[in-house]
Write a structure and sequence with these properties.
This protein has 349 residues and is an alpha/beta fold. It folds into 2 domains: 233 residues, Rossmann fold (3-Layer(aba) Sandwich); 89 residues, no CATH class. The chain has 10 helices and 14 strands. The strands form 3 sheets. Strands 5-9-8-7-11-3-6 form a 7-stranded antiparallel beta sheet. Strand 12, helix 5 and strand 13 form a beta-alpha-beta unit. Helix 1 runs antiparallel to helix 10, helix 3 packs parallel to helix 10 and helix 5 packs parallel to helix 6.
Length: 349
């Protein structure tokens, strides 16, 4: 029969005395959630519904949570949430801006009216004043995009994108949530996104850089550092960009060395991993049946992603390619000890 709630802290109880709620609390404490930040490669563009966060979630459930269900006897235990925070087309400052790691800032003075009427809201990245164009893929709420609601000078509201046909450019308005006092906002004031105040205790996976937005190696390292700095206790894995057509956008040897030097084993080069293990992983873990082509072999020698794992655009991944990335992230996080707490629970400790 199900064990009854005792009112005691589950942390103080032996596992054989835990209720389902107690077991779930320990799972949530071991891995609260996993947030996957990035661009179209994280989103899963052209993946026929597949994405690496989706595969990551499935592997965690199958490999880590199912054994806990068997150990505990509670089939209703839930796996940690895996959030897909990828948005196609976004540059590094746009991804980091959504996260709140490198905030968007007002580029002009504005006045937020006392009522809820929308007001023009021009902003740029605080990283060198770069032009940013978030919300091209929705209202900032879909799938946990992380932008809305925002706060500007302490006023909560919604950032609204619209397209200025005459200027051929994305522009933005801000509409406060409830009426209040008129609020002058100076240039340089931060736009505080919804994600800026969340997720610090989660595990974080960051895959970015393919759409640019950095000017040199030091700038790229600083941008990754800002994303990593949003997490407590170094709970992050940073992944350098993968393949792009004609090798455009691949990390250089200098960039990989600098990122590895800054973040140690918290950094992983996607292009190197896919070249070394991609096809073998696809065949052994997902029964893909890929027979490497001469072009695959050439790319492997060059240290880039085999073409058999890429779509016809030679940029985005096939469904199998996205599954391979999900397996890679799972295996690499596991090897770094991020799942040790879940493994201990499976053993009843």
């Amino acid at each position: 029969m199900p064990r009854e709630e005792t009112g005691e802290d589950p942390a103080s109880l032996p596992t054989d005395a835990l209720t389902q709620a107690g077991w779930q609390k320990r799972i949530n404490e071991a891995v609260p959630a996993i947030d996957c930040w990035g661009d179209s490669i994280t989103e899963g563009y052209l993946g026929d519904g597949e994405s690496f966060p989706q595969t990551l979630a499935a592997l965690i459930d199958e490999e880590l949570i199912e054994p806990i269900r068997k150990t505990s006897g509670f089939s209703g235990l839930k796996a940690p949430i895996v959030r897909n925070m990828g948005v196609s087309t976004e540059t590094v400052p746009e991804i980091a801006g959504r996260r709140g790691a490198i905030p968007f800032v007002m580029s002009e003075d504005i006045v937020i009216p006392a009522d809820t009427a929308a007001v023009e809201c021009p902003f740029v990245s605080s990283d060198r004043g770069q032009t940013t164009k978030p919300l091209r893929k929705g209202d900032g709420k879909y799938g946990g995009n992380g932008i809305n609601p925002v706060r500007i000078a302490g006023v909560e509201g919604e950032l609204i994108r619209y397209y200025d046909v005459e200027a051929d450019f994305s522009r933005y308005r801000f509409a406060r949530s409830v009426p209040g006092k008129e609020m002058p906002v100076p240039a340089g004031e931060a736009v505080i996104t919804d994600a800026a105040g969340k997720y610090a205790d989660d595990l974080c996976v960051v895959l970015m850089g393919a759409n640019g937005g950095y000017e040199d190696t030091a700038n790229l390292v600083g941008q990754f550092a800002a994303m990593a700095g949003m997490q407590r206790e170094e709970r992050f894995l940073l992944i350098g960009m993968g393949h792009r057509p004609e090798n455009n956008g691949l990390l250089s040897a200098e960039e990989k060395q600098a990122l590895a030097g800054a973040f140690g084993d918290r950094f992983l080069s996607l292009q190197d991993w896919m070249a070394a293990y991609g096809i073998d992983c696809a065949n052994h873990e997902f029964a893909a049946g890929i027979v490497p082509t001469a072009e695959d072999e050439r790319r492997v020698r060059a240290g880039v992603t085999p073409s058999s794992l890429l779509n016809e655009d030679d940029l985005h991944y096939t469904p199998t390619g996205y599954r391979v990335i999900g397996y890679m992230v799972f295996a690499e996080m596991d090897s770094r000890g991020y799942f040790d707490g879940l493994k201990a629970l499976a053993g009843g400790s």
